Amino acid sequence: MKILVPVKRVIDYNVKVRVKADETGVDLANVKMSMNPFDEIAVEEAICLKEAGVASEVVVVSIGVKQAQETLRTALAMGADRAILVTAADDVHTDIEPLAVANILKAVVDEEQPQIVLAGKQAIDNDMNATGQMLSALLGWSQATFASEVKVEGDAAVVTREVDGGLQTIKVQLPAIITADLRLNEPRYASLPNIMKAKRKPLDEKTPADYGVHVTPRLTVVKTSEPAVREAGEIVGSVDELVAKLKEAGAV
């Protein structure tokens, strides 16, 4: 069984995001970039399935700028077998829209023929949470989103999902799209020997044109702005004073 894992290069989650002075987008100058955390969880789960003898090959794919090679090498160092980079933009500020990503991934799936596409539930830069669902619709495959546990049983996957009311366990027929939630696993750190080995693993470079897909954006970002600054709180001396303040504010 082959597992395909899409990964995205995003601003590292430890970095404080800053908006450009002209409000045209986020400032990426000299900013640390890394693999989207949910995608890292998906890579870890795919590797665990391979180590358990369920999968025979783990292929990672990234769609974006050429610098995403670093992200793919990280996945290879974690234990993925080979990588595909689809260079779809020259400017690091260009974000490929979910439908274009899904269309490219569909073409990759048609070529690679995996049984499972294991993706992060969303990217932390745009929080779209749409690519996995769009890919499922384009392929006509089963989907199991927000997975916190994955078990493969023959030609089906049993997936525990995180939903508003708690947990939901479903069984989906393979091939299927599965998107990883935060509590699915704890990604491993790549060891130095594996980092060195990753440099020799295959990494194919493609373009959207190779798959017959156009990535012309349909959306235009009008303005990007910082969240409103919260006003300072006020300390009161008693419950009665608190109630009086709330009444003045019209909260009670």
Please describe the topology of this protein:
Layout: E1 2-6, E2 9-11, E3 33-35, H1 37-51, E4 57-64, H2 69-78, E5 82-87, H3 98-112, E6 116-120, H4 131-139, E7 142-153, E8 156-163, E9 166-173, E10 176-180, H5 192-198, E11 203-206, H6 239-249
Parallel strand pairs: 1-4, 1-6, 4-5, 5-11, 6-10, 7-10
Antiparallel strand pairs: 2-3, 7-8, 8-9
Summarize the model shown.
The chain is built from 6 helices and 11 strands. It has about 250 residues and is an alpha/beta fold. The chain has a single domain, classed as Rossmann fold (3-Layer(aba) Sandwich).
What does this structure look like?
The chain is built from 6 helices and 11 strands. By secondary structure, the protein is of the alpha/beta class. It has a single domain, classed as 3-Layer(aba) Sandwich (Rossmann fold). It has a 9-stranded mixed beta sheet, with helices on both faces. Strands 2-3 form a two-stranded antiparallel sheet. The longest helix has 15 residues.
Search tags:
6 helices; globular; single chain; two-stranded antiparallel sheet; alpha/beta; 27% strand; 252 residues; 27% helix; nine-stranded mixed β-sheet; Rossmann fold
- Kindly, what is the distance between the CA atoms of the first and last residues, rounded to a whole number of angstroms? 60 Å
Looking at CATH, the homologous superfamily is HUPs
Helical element count? Answer: 6
Order of helices and strands: EEEHEHEHEHEEEEHEH
CATH class: Alpha Beta
What's the arrangement of strands in the largest beta sheet?
9-8-7-10-6-1-4-5-11
Strand fraction equals 25-35%
